[in-house]
Amino acid sequence: MAFTKEEKTKMIERYEDWVARSQAIFMLEFSKASIKDVEPVRKKAREAGGEMHVVKNTLFGLVLDKLGMDGKDYLEKSTLIGFAFNDAPGMAKVVTEAAKTDFFTIKGGFLGNRVINNNEIKALADLPPLPVVRAQLLGLLNAPASKLVRTINEPARGLAAVIKAYSEKDQAAAAAE
């Protein structure tokens, strides 16, 4: 299908926008897949805060050149690109799960402007999702404060336990008389 110069210019602008908004970019080959096979991957990508798009390799290569990113080796055969707008590890999980099927093969990608290979993408996919990392960080920040509060309250709690024990001892002695 031939595109006019105006259509190509619009496609390049769209690709530049996607790349500019992305924390990471993941490239998959999907030569064995049909649209029915691609749609579930796109849905999971949207749930992970990203998007998956089929791109024209030559036009996307122009965008990479313009941005100084060296990834033309990945732009062979049919290319499905995952753009991680919010959560790079979440999108990496989507890509690695898709690659477990017979329809997709991971070509590589970018984390920022840095080229990453299959192993690095899989390592990124093993990271916990962003909400879990935030919760872990919050737990780390709250732990010292919680310990401090418990330490400060411990003498008062111990004193209260001693007073209660004496009061119960006195009540038991009065009841026995």
Task: Characterise this structure.
This protein is an alpha+beta fold and 177 residues long. The chain has 2 domains: 5-127, Alpha-Beta Plaits; 128-177. It is built from 6 helices and 5 strands; from the N terminus they run αβαβαβαββαα. It has helices at 5-21, 35-47, 57-66, 88-99, 118-125, 130-176; strands at residues 24-29, 50-54, 79-84, 105-111, 114-116. It has a 5-stranded antiparallel β-sheet with strand order 2-3-1-4-5, sandwiched between helices. A hairpin with a 2-residue loop joins strand 4 and strand 5. Helix 1 (5-21) packs across helix 3 (57-66) and helix 4 (88-99) crosses helix 5 (118-125). The longest helix is centred in the C-terminal third of the chain and has 47 residues, at 130-176. The radius of gyration is 28 Å and the shape is elongated. The mean pLDDT is 82.
**Class by SSE composition:** alpha+beta
Spans of at least 5 consecutive residues with low confidence: none
Alpha-carbon Rg, integer: 28 Å
CATH-level-2 architecture of the largest domain: 2-Layer Sandwich
Distance between the termini: 104 Å
Tell how many strands the DSSP assignment holds: 5
- Beta-strand share of residues: 15-25%
Q: Which bin fits the share of residues in helices?
A: 55-70%
Write down the domain tally: 2
The tally of helices reads 6
Give the CATH H-level superfamily of the largest domain. Ribosomal protein L10, N-terminal RNA-binding domain
Order of helices and strands: HEHEHEHEEHH
Shape: elongated
CATH topology of the largest domain: Alpha-Beta Plaits
Describe the sheet with the most strands. Answer: 5 strands, antiparallel
**Overall pLDDT confidence:** 82
